[in-house]
Amino acid sequence: MKLDQLRRSDVRRCAEIEEILFPGDDPWSAHAFHSELDQGHHYLAARSDDGTQLLGYAGLAVVGRRGDYESSVHTIGVVPEAQGQGIGKALLRALLERADELKAPVFLEVRTDNATAVGLYEQHGFQKLGVRKRYYQPSGADAFTMARPAQAPARDEVAG
Fold this sequence. Notes:
- This protein has five helices and seven strands; from the N terminus they run E-H-H-E-E-E-H-E-H-E-E-H.
- It is α+β, with helices and mostly antiparallel strands.
- Strand 4, helix 3 and strand 5 form a beta-alpha-beta unit.
- Helix 1 packs across helix 2.
- Belongs to the acetyltransferase family. RimI subfamily.
């Protein structure tokens, strides 16, 4: 598996994966992914070693000014047949590296019934802030809001 930038040519497949992963809610459309890319958000793709298959994707939005950035994980998705292989973890870590470069805190929402994702986020320093009732539609599933404080990039700590 290798990570690189999400390409516009990946968008249709991302929307297909969304349909598979989130059938009871409002999966992102190709238009939504194009909009995220148009806004310049940081999107990554996880690809098979030979680069022929899109195994997953992840996106981080960054807002604010230099020295006062905030970031938000907008999505992480991994095809069902590749789940449990560390792809989601690798995507999350890459997003967090970008946030750390900017010394930005990271926020996200995650379904309260997605114990695997909640555990992954907690392992990476996220804490639950609260619950958004009926956040996911049309299922009405609740979401935890979670945050990870801003952290200095690893290279600063080594150089420090």
